Amino acid sequence: MAILATQTIALAGLDPAYTAAAGGGDKCEVGDRVFLHVKNGAASPITVTLTSTAAVRGQAAANVAVTVAANDDRMIGPLPPDLLANATDGLCAIGYSAVTTVTVAAFRL
């Protein structure tokens, strides 16, 4: 499980760097201005799952599942800390239904 480096988008622009999605999942920073960008180069759709750590009235909140179509990409976020921050490290756990030809990056506005 890799921790994705959060890239800050600046007025002068950003040359984004993507990394291969890890088979065991990844982690990233959370925040109201943090987003995850997933590119799926496969011929089949994938599901990206953000593990929820929140509870409402003692009931666990559902994980966030996002479908990324075949040969498409999806910007996911913002990633709110109160929903997604793990109590141990403060990061969001990310899972993928498949990782072949999938790349990912985390961004902060």
Beta content comes to 35-45%
The largest sheet is: 5 strands, mixed
Order of helices and strands: EEEEEEEEEEHEE
How many H/I helical runs?
A: 1
**So what's the overall shape?**
globular
- Alpha-carbon Rg, integer: 14 Å
Low-confidence stretches: none
What is the averaged pLDDT score? Answer: 96
Order of adjacent strands in the largest pleated sheet = 1-4-11-6-9
Total DSSP E strands = 12
Distance between the amino and carboxyl termini: 24 Å
Q: Give me the secondary-structure category.
A: mainly beta
Q: How would you characterize the overall build of this protein?
A:
This protein is mainly beta. The protein is about 5% helix and about 45% strand. A five-stranded mixed beta sheet has the order 1-4-11-6-9, with no helix packed on it. Strands 2, 3, 5, 10 and 12 form a five-stranded mixed beta sheet that branches. The chain is globular and about 40 Å long. The mean pLDDT is about 95.
Short description:
The protein is mainly β and 109 residues long. It has one helix and twelve strands; from the N terminus they run ββββββββββαββ. It starts with a strand and ends with a strand.
List the helices and strands and how they pair.
Blueprint: E1 2-3, E2 6-8, E3 19-20, E4 26-28, E5 34-40, E6 46-50, E7 55-56, E8 59-60, E9 64-68, E10 72-76, H1 81-84, E11 92-96, E12 102-108
Parallel strand pairs: 1-4, 2-12
Antiparallel strand pairs: 3-12, 4-11, 5-10, 5-12, 6-9, 6-11, 7-8
Q: What attributes does this structure have?
A:
single chain, 109 residues, mainly beta, five-stranded mixed β-sheet, 1 helix
